[in-house]
Each structure stands twice: as C-alpha cells, then as structure tokens.
Design a protein that fits this description.
There is one protein chain. It contains 20 helices and two strands. By secondary structure, it is mainly α. The chain has a two-stranded antiparallel sheet with strand order 1-2. Helix 6 packs antiparallel against helix 14 and helix 19 packs antiparallel against helix 20. The chain is globular, with a radius of gyration of 22 Å. 53% of the residues are buried. The model is unreliable at 1-13 (pLDDT under 50).
Length: 446
C-alpha cells in the first residue's frame, strides 16, 4: 500500500466518529439515565406538534382529543419499547439488527436503502422549511439559511452521538422554556376552562381518525428507535425514557396545541408560539429544527454505511458518509428540489413500519434466525455468519406494505406493522422462514 493511500485512509478515520455503526456498542460506551432522557425529550416536541394539536382541536372537543392522543401514544409506546428493547439488549443499530432478525444480508441492504433515502430526504425537507421560516423572521434568501443550517447540522452529526447529546442538553430546556413562556403568556389572558369545553369549529374528526394521524405520523421514528436505544445501559431505562417522551409530546405539547387551536379557531398557531418574535422567536425556530433534524441525518448515515458494506463490501466511515449525504441534502433543500418529492418520501415511510413488525416477531416470538445474536451478546461480538436471503421475509414485507398503502381503514402504519408481525409469526412457527445461503460477516468480533 502506497504512502498516499495510507494517508488517505487515516484521514478518513479522523473525520468525525464512526459511532459503532457496524458493531455492538460496548457497555463502557453507553450513557446513564439522565443523559439518555434528554435525548428522548429532544424528540418529543416541535412546532409541528403544536400544529398537529391545533388541527385536532378545531375538529374535536378537548376531551376527545385527550383520548385520541392517549390511543396514539399507547400504540407508539408499545412499538418503541419492543423494538427499542431489542436494540438496547444487542447494542446494534436498526439496520444491523435486520441482518439477524429475519432479513439476512441482502434484505438488510434493502431496508438500509429505504431508510437512508427516506431520512435524508426528510432532512432536506425540514431544512427547506427552516430556510423559509428564517426568511420570514429575519429576511435574507431562504437558500442561504438552508446552507447555514445544513452545514452546522452536518458538522454536528459527523462527530456523532456524544455531540448530539450536548446539543440536547442545551436545546431541550431552552426550547421548552421559551415555548412555555410564549404559550402561558398567551393563555393567561383567556379562560382555560372555557377553551377546554369549547365545541369544534371545523369539520369533526373522530377519535380513531385522530389517533391514526398521531400514531402514523411518528411510526417511522418509532421503528428506528434502536439507533438511539443501543446507547442505553438498562432495558427499563428505554421504557421510562420513551414514556416520558410520549407524555411530553402528546399530553403537554399536543394538548396545548389543542387549546391554541380552540383559541384561534385555526391550525395556524405557530405565530402564537413565535409571538415573542425578535431574538427569542429566532432561537425557538433554530432549536426546533436542530434537535429533530440531526436525527434524520444520523439515521440516514447509519443506513448508508450498512448498505455500502453489504452490497459493495466497503467499510465506509460513518463520519465521511455523513459529510457526503449532509452536503447533498443541504444543496437539494437550498434549491427546493426535495419539496417535490414529499409524496415519494411518504410512500417510503409506509415501507418502514413492517420492518419493525418483523423485528419484533422474530426477536421476541419466533426466535429462530436471531438466536446467534443472543449467543454472542455476552462476549460483545456479533455472529460470524448470517443468511444471504430470506425469501419468506421479503414476501411478508411486500404484503404488509400493500396493506399499509392500499387499505384505508384504521391506522395504515399500524396495519402494515401488525400484518408483518402476524404473518411472520405464523410462517415462522410453521417453519417456513427459511434462509437461503450463508455469508461470513467480516466485521464480526471487532
């Protein structure tokens, strides 16, 4: 190997943090309860959650909205805990888990591609929304703000979970403190009791329909929970932290949005949250984007690393991948390209929940292909071999996707997830989940 090649390889290794993208997270690299709780809370509130609450508020009574949020939160919490617990126990990302929980090597590559495209797409879309918001608040061309936000978040995510943790420590208390100040000052001039008993002013929304919106909107985030929970030390931490996130997101932020919706008679309530304007309003917008969108880029980078390693056999460094896709997402958001592909990204989103159903079914119920994971966990290794293809799993995935996409009853994301879990369990118990071929895992034991 030439000196230049060695130098290039070492330079790649120095770009950011790989964050155990293809390995188990060792016990000494995991975080305590408080630090992880802040990461969970960082995902629990955003300006869009206020808008969601207001949307339900103008079409529902406060009590009905409460039960809709309760139903949605319970559904999400069950999904997050089960999938997140698998990630915590094994210390693996969601895409790495799929190699040993039903999909095999090639199926895992397909999952990684879907997740990578979906999350980096939404990173760009959210970045574009940030650019427009900043343009409305302080002026300047939206593309410039897109560029600034994209570059800052890319640099942050390059250095991985540790630095994202520091962002959460700053962003969470500041964001919720400023938003609470704005909302409380607005509601203090009105009767909260009257708002809670107010009748809906728009087309009525049923409790099941509202729960569909609530649970469906975050199902992808629930399925990729292992990307975060692999850094947890205890399984019960996952339960308490995710539950706290649900309480804050659905009951406090969401139900406050319901009150604001009754107050203004419209779902357009962001002007209330940003009513303090000036520097404070600016901070709220910046933090609302940063503390959510960094996870879109992070999850996408993990998916790309697994995809390239699986398909091309190249061990890319996660920091390098983040730099490339972060720049790509930033440029596409700056020119407004990704705004035209939100429908496509939504279709990809329907393909992700069934993956979660298959992981849960294999890991907790069928316990066939995932057995090697449990056998190597204590040694901190990952299994030395894995299936190449699992055709039955791909058939289950396709069938569940069709249910989610074309059956318009109930909660589509949940329908597809449950369909996948039930079909996989039935086929697994019948001995029909049979792997085809076996491949060595080059990074095993590292």
């Amino acid at each position: 190997m030439s000196t230049a090649t060695k130098t290039a390889k070492h330079a790649k290794k120095r770009i950011g943090n790989d964050d155990y993208s293809l390995r188990r997270v060792p016990e000494d690299a995991r975080y305590g309860f408080g630090s992880m709780l802040l990461q969970w809370l960082a995902q629990s509130g955003s300006l869009s959650q206020f808008v969601l609450g207001a949307t339900l508020g103008v079409g529902m009574r406060f009590s009905d909205a409460f039960w809709a949020f309760t139903l949605g939160a319970v559904i999400l919490e069950v999904v997050i805990f089960l999938i997140g617990l698998a990630g915590q126990r094994e210390g693996l990302t969601m895409t790495m888990l799929t190699r040993f929980t039903g999909f095999g090597r090639n199926g895992s590559a397909l999952v990684s591609l879907v997740i990578a495209i979906s999350l980096v797409g939404w990173f760009g879309v959210q970045n574009g929304i940030f650019g427009k918001s900043m343009h409305a608040l302080v002026g300047g061309p939206p593309w410039l703000w897109c560029a600034v936000s994209g570059v800052v978040l890319t640099l942050l995510v390059i250095y991985g979970f540790k630095y994202m943790m520091w962002l959460a420590k700053i962003a969470v208390p500041l964001f919720f403190g400023l938003v609470a100040w704005s909302v409380v000052s607005t509601l203090s001039d009105h009767s909260v009791g009257a708002l809670m008993s107010a009748a809906p002013t728009a087309t009525a929304i049923s409790v099941p329909a509202a729960a569909t919106i609530i649970a469906g909107g975050y199902m992808t985030g629930a399925v990729v929970a292992p990307d975060m929970t692999r850094f947890n030390r205890k399984g019960w931490h996952v339960l308490l932290q995710s539950s706290a996130s649900m309480v804050l997101s659905e009951y406090i932020v969401g139900m406050t949005g319901v009150l604001l919706g009754h107050l203004v008679g419209s779902s357009d309530v962001t002007h209330i949250v940003l009513s303090t304007s000036g520097f404070v309003g600016l901070i709220v917008v910046v933090l609302a984007t940063a503390k959510i969108n960094d996870w879109n880029l992070y999850g996408s980078s993990l998916g790309v690393v697994n995809f390239v390693r699986t398909v091309f056999g190249r061990p890319l460094h996660r920091g390098v991948v983040t730099l490339v896709i972060g720049i790509a997402g930033t440029v596409l958001s700056a020119i407004g390209f990704l705004q035209h592909f939100t429908a496509f990204l939504s279709v990809l989103g329907v393909a992700i929940p069934p993956v979660g159903g298959i992981i849960v079914a294999e890991y907790f119920l069928v316990r066939g292909l995932s057995t090697p994971l449990r056998e190597t966990r204590a040694a901190g290794r990952i299994p030395a071999t894995m299936p190449v293809w699992v055709p039955a799993t791909l058939a289950v995935w396709a069938a569940a996707f069709c249910v989610g996409e074309f059956v318009h009853w109930g909660i589509p994301a949940l329908n597809s997830l449950l369909t996948a879990a039930i079909l996989y369990t039935v086929l697994g118990r019948a001995g029909l989940i049979r792997p085809v071929g076996s491949a060595e895992l080059e990074e095993a034991g590292r």
